[in-house]
Amino acid sequence: MADPTIQYDDIQGTILRGYRVDLARHFILSINDKAATGSLIRALVDGLGGLPHITTAKHWSEKPACFLNISFTSTGLTALGLSAAELGSFDPAFQRGATSLDTAKTIGDIGESSPDNWIGGLANGERVHIVLTLWVAKDPAVLERISDQLRAAFVGCVTELSAHDAKALPDNQIHFGYRDNIAQPTVIGAPPRKRQIPDDQEPVATGEFLLGYRNQGGGTYSVAPTELSLNSSYAAFRILEQDVAGFDAFLAEYSAKAGVDTELLAAKVCGRWRNGNPLELRPDSAGEVLPSSQLNDFTYVSNDPSQDDTLGLKCPIGSHIRRNNPRNGAVVGTDSAHHRIVRRAMPYGPAYDPDRPTTEPRGLIGYFINASLSNQFEFLTSQWNLDSEFVKSATKPGDPDAGNAVFNISGEDVFLGVNDPADSSFTLAAPGPKGKNNTVLPGFSRMITTRGGVYCFFPSITGLRYLAKVAAD
User: Fold this and answer.
1) Which in 185, 205, 245, 297 has the greatest CB count within 10 A?
2) Would you state the pLDDT for residue 445?
3) Based on the number of CB atoms within 10 Å of its own CB, is 35 exposed (0-12), middle (13-18) or buried (19 or more)?
4) Where are the domains of the chain?
């Protein structure tokens, strides 16, 4: 089947393009005046009055000074004038919203991560209507100048509930010290990326990330009205605070208990060494950073016993990258291609210095983009990150006595799991029947706390014009 023809200038750019910037600011907005907000949307689409215009996925010959994208919550679309019947056609998770108790239970936003504890007005989902994100290449002065322009335009339209800044760390690292943004899905029909890292996996159907195109299941996600049903997408916006000191303490304590090197344990819980090299290709030591052509070129299951890692002896089945993308591993339900997401997230907060530790908040903030919050973001989180029983029974080719995959995973994702010390665990697998030689590390605490979340809808440019018109009527 031929790749679909996608009208890039009708799609908000962040869905299909990574902007490769150092700075970002996320504005959380509440609509005060429907008609005035419609005028603001129209001005942002066309760049009127000196405002930056909404960035599309269209190729640019000269990199813009900034990038701007806008998304809306279910309550925001209601405030603009969409009817209950129309909203009833949207993804069920989107309709519930991020602050729903059902949503929070599904994705593990409980305890300290409960929406009741969220910052910046995000706890009140009824008031959160818009998330507007400004990305800037490097210059903080540009970020402040354009923010001032936007804030002037907000007057009489929306109330700014809060703004959340992000700043890239050197070499695309996150605060836990790992190199990030290595493995993104290849979307059929998407514009080619300048720094595409080759992927051993088949490209993912366009309809997994854009409404109106065929998805992996052969169907099409759509909404009413039709003006919003082509070239739009959903996202989970998340503020994830990382306990760096707690993670360092975990590594020190549990590497000693397991009798392994601290950096090897860090690689085992992630699936990659902190320099980005995958355990599948570098199982014993991090080594020099592999070429980009190799960083993502691996699988977990092979008919060649020397290459196979069905049992997770090299890369644990419960590692972060293997849970979030099992690749060709055997899992319950459909394969991993049905549940991929695009990540557009950056660190926030000051870099962590273990010699001079501070308690300032730091973590990751941004979007997890997909065409179905229910089947992608929520499935991925609830079924693979928060559960260890999604792995099918499987043995090593040629050596069934070495064990079975179902016994070589336990607990929740070390990073994204709830991880109550009463029942948390992580398994380091070893050959042997029914996991009898495995090392199980129990009793650790949560590493990441949710500080805010929004379920967003990114309309196409056509959809934004439609919303501006509806708001004006």
Assistant:
1) 205
2) 98
3) middle
4) 8-97+114-240+458-472, 243-340+373-451
